[in-house]
Amino acid sequence: MDIKELNTFKTIVEEGTFSLAAIKLNYAQSTVTTQIKKLEKELGFLLFKRGWDAKLTDEGALFVAEVDNLLMHWDYSIAQAQRISNEEKGALKIGLTESVAKKIIPSILNYLNDEKPYIHCDFVVGNTELLSPLADQHKIDFAVCGNKNNSSNLIFTPLGHEEIEFIVNSPSHPILDKGSVEITDIIHYPILIGENSCYYTQSVNAFLLENNLAFKRVYNCSALHLIPQMIFGNAIGIIPKGTQFVQSNISFKVKGFDPKMPIGLLVSAHRNNYLTQTKRQIMKLIESSSIFNR
Known about the structure:
Layout: H1 3-15, H2 18-25, H3 29-43, H4 58-84, E1 90-96, H5 98-115, E2 119-125, H6 128-136, E3 142-145, E4 154-162, E5 164-168, E6 190-193, H7 199-210, E7 217-220, H8 227-230, E8 236-240, E9 250-252, E10 261-268, H9 277-287
Parallel strand pairs: 1-2, 1-3, 6-7, 6-8
Antiparallel strand pairs: 3-10, 4-10, 5-8, 5-9
């Protein structure tokens, strides 16, 4: 049984068709077909029902989980062997929320450049709603984000909490004239906030719901780093603390509003058993970071 055949099988399952798998793997479609036929012959059963959309047979569906285990163990074994020979190679894929990415990425890159020059690293920046399923599906090695889903398939190690900031774009904004700002003082202003799937947006909405309140005019933006630049007139921006301001932004506090959302390391419970030394070292580097509000 060839590791390339197993990887081809997994790619077909992920992509949905033989032709899409061939494109992703940069193979001729005939090569993909030949590899699957060879694998089926070695296994003694069909993996796919014959047809355009590559539907799995019952046996194929059972084999998928085993293939994930085999490939994960293979990658882990190769990484361990490469580490022993002091030529560790490979790739990392780390998920980060926007509010921590700028602060964490430089230290990770410094470590890799100094200690692991053969390791390639991809950063996936997004909110908890995006990163949680990616960790669960093994599409990233781990993430630094919230723990919204509380899935039994994921291990969450809290590192601190994420705070929320309210910002305006002018020192003459009427809200700044108030000695103490209540949540009822801001609900009538235009609001700029992350998309509804954002963990912090949902926390804000939950707080409003608990107090039988609602914003009147809301504008959502999935790119949180753009919100400080988008504030117009008397609009108010609501962002995770740590999001970079523009020079004209002024922050203020809202009395009684402090959700302190947990943020930490999120990793697949299954993948956790196969984390290489480099991945564990980077996780320790993140854990020791002083950027988190503990």
